[in-house]
Specification:
single chain; alpha/beta; Rossmann fold; 35% helix
Length: 268
C-alpha cells in the first residue's frame, strides 16, 4: 500500500489554545472525541491527525485505508456484512487497546458501542452533522442514556473546508476598507484576494483550509447534557461559551490573508 503524507495536529489550522486543550484530552486514558462535518469536509484527515501516536496500542476501524498509519492496527470494514463496523466494535473489547479510532459511526448500535468503549478507551470518531449541538442531541437519542453521553463525551470538533487565496497571485483587495467594514473588523487591516493566474486557473483560489468550531465538555456542560437538554438549550450554552459557528475562525484566517473576505460572509 502506498504511504501517503499524514498531517499533524500542528498544521491543521487550529488555534494554539485549542491545540493545547486537545493535547490534554489526548493524554487521558478514556473519553470520546467527535469530529463533525458534512461529507467531503476532511473529517478523516482531522481524526488521523489527532491520534496520539505515542500511545502503546492503537486500533483503527476504517471503510477505506488510504493512509498507512505508523504503529496502528488498521482494520478494513464495510457498512454491512460480516466484517461490519458493528462487528468490529463488538469484538474490539478483547483487544488490548488504549486508543480506538473509528472513521465514522452511523447506526444507533454503533453509537452505543462507541460510547460504551469510551468508558475505558480513548475513542476518536466522526459523525456527518453540521455542528456540536446536533451531534450531542443525536448521541443522546441514539444512546438512550444522557448520563453515559455526559460521562464520556469530552469534545466535538466541527469543521468546514474553504478555499485558500492563491499564494502565487495574492494582492490587496481593491475594496479592502469596504469589506473590512462589512465583516466588522478594523478598516486598516489589508484584506487579500487572488488576482488570478495560470497556477489557480485564474480563479484566485488554490487549495483549501479548515475552519473550526471546537466545543469542550466541561463539568457545567456535562451536567446540562446529563439532564436531557433541548436542542435550544445546547445551542444557547455553546453560544455563551463563544464557540458557536465558524465566523470567528473565518475572520482570523481572513485577516491572515488565507481566505477571501467574501467567504467570511457565508458564515454567521
Amino acid at each position: 500500500m502506498e504511504r501517503k503524507r499524514r498531517r499533524s495536529i500542528e498544521n491543521l489550522g487550529l488555534s494554539q489554545g485549542d491545540k493545547t486543550q486537545i493535547k490534554k484530552l489526548l493524554n487521558k486514558p478514556s473519553g470520546l472525541i467527535v469530529v463533525a462535518a458534512p461529507a467531503g469536509n476532511g473529517k478523516t484527515t482531522t481524526l488521523i491527525s489527532v491520534i496520539p501516536y505515542q500511545s502503546k496500542n492503537i486500533f483503527a476501524i476504517e471503510s477505506s485505508i488510504e493512509t498507512v498509519l505508523p504503529h496502528v492496527s488498521q482494520t478494513l470494514v464495510s457498512r454491512d456484512g460480516p466484517n461490519s463496523y458493528q462487528s468490529a466494535l463488538e469484538n474490539i473489547d478483547s483487544q488490548d487497546t488504549d486508543v480506538i479510532m473509528v472513521d465514522t459511526i452511523a447506526s444507533d448500535k454503533e453509537i452505543q458501542l462507541t460510547i460504551d468503549l469510551a468508558g475505558a478507551n480513548l475513542m476518536l470518531t466522526s459523525i456527518p452533522f453540521e455542528n456540536a449541538a446536533q451531534v450531542i442531541m443525536h448521541l443522546i437519542r441514539s444512546q438512550g442514556d444522557s448520563m453515559s453521553v455526559a460521562h464520556t463525551l469530552k469534545m466535538v470538533i466541527s469543521q468546514r473546508l474553504v478555499p485558500l487565496i492563491c499564494s502565487n497571485c495574492k494582492i490587496t483587495h481593491s475594496k479592502s476598507k469596504e469589506l473590512a467594514d462589512k465583516i466588522n473588523i478594523p478598516q486598516d487591516i489589508k484584506l487579500q484576494r487572488g488576482a488570478g493566474c495560470p497556477r489557480c486557473y485564474f480563479t484566485g483560489r488554490k487549495g483549501r483550509v479548515m475552519l473550526f468550531q471546537t466545543v469542550f465538555i466541561d463539568d457545567k456542560f456535562a451536567e446540562l447534557i446529563a439532564n436531557n437538554p433541548t436542542f435550544s438549550q445546547l445551542v444557547n450554552h455553546i453560544k455563551r461559551t463563544g464557540k458557536y459557528g465558524f465566523r470567528y475562525d473565518a475572520l482570523i484566517k481572513c485577516q491572515r490573508g488565507w481566505i477571501h473576505p467574501e467567504d467570511v460572509l457565508k458564515f454567521s
